[in-house]
Structure formats: C-alpha cells, structure tokens
Design brief:
The protein is mainly α. It has two domains: 25-94, Orthogonal Bundle (Helicase, Ruva Protein, domain 3); 98-160. It has helices spanning 2-19, 25-40, 57-71, 76-87, 102-159. Helix 2 packs across helix 3 (57-71). The chain is elongated, with a radius of gyration of 36 Å.
C-alpha cells in the first residue's frame, strides 16, 4: 500500500506542476505563435526559406505583422489567411489539402502501400518458384541419372 500511495502522491504533484503557468506565459505564447506561423509561411524574397529562417527585410516585416495581428486578438487562421490574400497560396509552406492539391497529400501514402504490396507479391512468387524448382530437380534428377546410366551400360555392352 505504501508504494501505491507514493505513486498517487507523485502523480498529484506532477499534475500541479504542469498546471502552474509562469507569469510571463502570455508573451511566450505570442512568441511561440509567431514562430509557428512564420515557420509555416515561405519568404517571398528568399527561395526555399521560411519567414522564420530568412533575414531579409521583408521577412522581418512579416514577423512584425504577425506579432501585431496576434496581439490584436486575431487567430492563427486569420493571420495565415491575410498573407494568403496578400501573396497567394504560394506563400504557404505546405499546400492546402483541397482541390487538386489533395493528390500531393495522398500519393506518398499510396506509393508506400503499393510498394509494400508489390514487394510482398515478389517475395511470395520468389518463394513459390524456389519450392517448385527444388521439387522439380529432385524428381527429374534420379530419372535423368538412371536414363543416362542405362545408356552408358548399353554402350559398354555393345563395345564388349
């Protein structure tokens, strides 16, 4: 019983520690949201870099706009929608799963499924062919050997 009560006490303490928020959590959450949004947007000036990674003036301005809109109380989706309206869907780091873009989300999964299925079929056929060959060689080998030996015996008898 002592161990069980110690376990419950430990879980209760951990639960209390997790629920306690530091006083500067509001500023930290805005910073986290700014980083999250800026990581999901591509910099229009830099190729292949997110707004969070880029050091361009435009990326710095975009991060400031993100921060301002979040402080005004806008949600993540509203901020992203603002940038999509301004720059188009090419600013998104990942294509939205709508329209023709859903193919981009489904094809990798389908390729993996069909690849595993194809490998399974190949291994099954390779295993069954191996068994057939081993069975076929066992049956044919004694007969062909005996026929060969009979021909040799006949030729030896004819020569003598």
């Amino acid at each position: 019983m002592g161990r069980l009560s110690l376990l419950f006490l430990t879980l209760a303490i951990l639960g209390c520690l997790i629920s306690v928020e530091p006083s500067h959590s509001q500023e930290k959450t805005i910073d986290d949201q700014v980083n999250e949004i800026s990581n999901s947007l591509l910099c229009p000036v830099c190729q292949g870099q997110s707004v969070a990674e880029s050091n361009s003036n435009l990326a710095n301005d975009m991060r400031q706009v993100i921060r301002k809109k979040l402080q005004e109380g806008q949600s993540r989706d509203e901020v992203v929608a603002y940038f999509v309206d301004t720059y188009g869907e090419t600013i998104l780091g990942a294509p939205p799963a709508k329209g023709v873009n859903w193919i981009l989300w489904i094809l990798p999964g389908l390729a993996i499924v069909f690849g595993i299925f194809g490998i399974g079929i190949f291994l099954y056929q390779a295993g069954s062919n191996k068994e057939e060959k081993s069975i076929g060689t066992e049956k044919n080998t004694p007969q062909s050997d005996s026929e060969y030996l009979e021909k040799i015996d006949e030729e030896l008898k004819n020569d003598s």
